[in-house]
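Hi F.,

I've been meaning to write this up properly since the lab meeting, where we talked about keeping a consistent format for the predictions we share between groups. The idea is simple: the sequence comes first, exactly as it goes in, then the structure tokens exactly as they come out, then a line or two of notes. No screenshots and no reformatting. I'm using this chain as the first example so we have something concrete to point to.
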Amino acid sequence: MTPESLGQVLAEFLDGARAAVVIEDGAIAFNLSESKYSISGEYNKCLLHLWSHERNVVRRVLDAEVKATTLRLQVQRMGQNRPTRLDFCRDRDQRSPAARRAARAAYEPRLRRALGRYFPAWTVIRLTTSVDLEHSFGPAYLRGWLRQGQRAMAIVGVNNQETQSTVDGALACGILWLEACRLAQSERNVVEGLTMIVPKDTVALTRERMAHLHPMAAKWQLYEFDQREDALVAADLGDRGNLATRLVHSVDERLTRERFAESIARIREILPQAEVVVLSPALVSFRRHGLEFAQARIAHDPRNFESSEEIAFGVGPEERVLNVENETQFGDLVRLAAVVRCKDGPKNHALWRMHPERWLESLVFGNIAALDGRLRPEPIYAQVPAFAAADRAMIDVLATTREGRLAVIELKADEDLHLPLQGVDYWSRVAWHQSRGEFQQFGYFPGRDISPQKPLLMLVAPALRVHPTTDTILRYLSPEIDWEVVGIDEHWREEIKVVFRKRPVRKPARAA
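Output, unedited:
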């Protein structure tokens, strides 16, 4: 294949795979929903450039083949002669439906035997992966319970062939299964708590989340299951170790805006309402209601090591560097974003539907008092700490109340079962940095005193899109987490209006 035909194959496949994952050497290297790419044909070669906040790679594409939902590339690393393989997968789980069913069927008897050995005084009852949409139970999680006399423990297990995001979502299923077992067995058995079983070496996130559950609401147990050895190993919920979290220094926005003044003026000449978001001292994002359409950045020329300012544009993971040849195309994109990305825009247009949570975030930034009058209008930060948890890297919004208490604001534009526990992820990391005085040390909230009180957790979603399981999961959270669910009007693009608020009732979910 010629470099031109290779580039065309890549462009056509990736245009419809904006949430694909990139697999290299058997591991996920990039997630296109959080990364960028560009395709170039310099020096009669097809070059693929992939980058994110963590990685930056360039590969020469030698061959390409599309198989079902996967694009398989033969690539060459810079400075190496031996080709390697790079796969773009629309579906993270590349197994066929038959392979998924086989893995789940094989897991059940192995776990049953292991439970029999490690809990000899208990009887294993009813292990199932049947779908129960009414209670939000899918086939990826094996559910059952242990019984000893009138005592019982709910069990949820996930096999080692499932994706990491499926493993990370297991605790939400576990809490819901515990509640279902308690309701079903209320007149016959006392369901004391939950036993979670996750694959070996995947315990970190679930352990951190379980450490923030209500200790009086249930007994919480966590095990790793080595399916090769059929061995269960208990995880110590008190041994949380160091969180996989880091806090970047706050950026001096004034200096950064001065550095990119020419690019900012150029963009705002076309779109005066463009949002200018400073991401780092060397990177500025331009958005329209949260939709990024361009970036200004400091680029380095590898041929002479000189630095210069450049503008890259594009919607989604693909982007192009602005030059004389594509300036008209750039202007058309900016004007299209201005017309479509507004409250009265065409609702069936792809740009109107993209990134609704970013849209919501931009409106919250513009009027955070609409959520709660206790919140200070400034300073407000977005995408602050980065940490290795689940599929997301950063919290949505971090603010303070007028009394100086930190407020972690997690936003959802659509129904999401995992909203409460994702909020716990971010809350725990903010509390961790707060306890070490790192927010002020790293330049956040300058001139403000931060209260030693633990952060407030605000879960914000359109009122009709709060998942029906949210209340159940929240009842099992630790009392140290002061949470609040804020339901907003469905027409939030027009104006943010709070429809209802829910706060915790300070008592155990159920006596264990």
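Notes:
Confidence is low (pLDDT under 50) at residues 386-393.
The chain has four domains: 3-89, 97-234, 253-351, 356-502.

If this format works for you, I'll send the rest the same way.

G.
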